[in-house]
Amino acid sequence: MVFGGRTGVNKPFEPAQEDSNSSTPTVQGWDETSKPTPPPTQHASLADCPITAATEATDQTSDGRLHSGKLSVEMINGWSYDNSFYLQWVSDMHTVIDPVRPGWISNIGVGTLNAADGFVSPEISARQTLECFASSGYYMNFTNRVDLMDEATTISGYPAWRMRAEVRIRSADMPEIEGDVVDIIVVDLGDPNKMGLFVSSVTIGDTARQTKVDAAIDTLRVG
């Protein structure tokens, strides 16, 4: 993903034309009056996404894992902790990154989705998060999104929902970059106020980094 243009500042993304086929969030939260259908594979929602007001932050330990509340994942050896990476609708975000080339990184991270922002279902919240991530400032020159995985799973016995998609770009400045494979996993922690989130991005075709990220996903756990 593009890195360096939108980190550390709590402000909304600048939406382009809205996709009327997807769920319609507002900055106060998501519209949960009906269950949305899976988003189209060729377009991400470009509607405004919530800006969370939650400020709780989990202290990071020296156990080699990233922690957000009860959810944690093993860090990837050699990747660097970056406290400037954020997603505006996610609180308590903790991330490690690996530079791919100037202006482009791969990453894994954990965070928290809050019910106060409208996140109440792992399935719907995973789709909403993928829509927001794909249409965020981290993917300038976005062209299309191709969904590869959209399924229920469990993490440490807790119900969860996983999505994987190719978020594709076309940039004259980075002609060799096709985009990222993005993984989103939302975990129902049994807390009505919040859910756990895992997110990762790896350059399309980068099998070495993808292997490392897949291994990290296998270490995701609650508790």
In terms of DSSP E residues, the strand content is 35-45%
Quickly count the domains.
1
CATH top level class name? Alpha Beta
Helix content: 10-25%
Distance between the termini: 30 Å
Return the string of H and E elements. EEEEEHEEEEHE
SSE topology:
Elements: E1 65-68, E2 71-74, E3 80-81, E4 91-101, E5 104-114, H1 122-134, E6 142-155, E7 158-169, E8 179-187, E9 194-203, H2 207-217, E10 221-222
Antiparallel strand pairs: 1-2, 2-10, 3-4, 4-5, 5-9, 6-7, 7-8, 8-9
Structural features, described:
There is one protein chain. With 223 residues, the protein is mainly β. The chain is built from 2 helices and 10 strands, in the order βββββαββββαβ. It has helices at residues 122-134, 207-217; strands at residues 65-68, 71-74, 80-81, 91-101, 104-114, 142-155, 158-169, 179-187, 194-203, 221-222. The strands form 2 sheets. Strands 3-4-5-9-8-7-6 form a 7-stranded antiparallel beta sheet. The protein has a 3-stranded antiparallel beta sheet with strand order 1-2-10, with no helix packed on it.
Short description:
The chain is mainly beta and 223 residues long. Helices cover 11% and strands 35% of the residues. The chain has two helices and ten strands, in the order E-E-E-E-E-H-E-E-E-E-H-E.
What are the defining features of this structure?
223 residues, Protein Transport Mog1p, Chain A, seven-stranded antiparallel β-sheet, three-stranded antiparallel β-sheet, 2 helices, globular
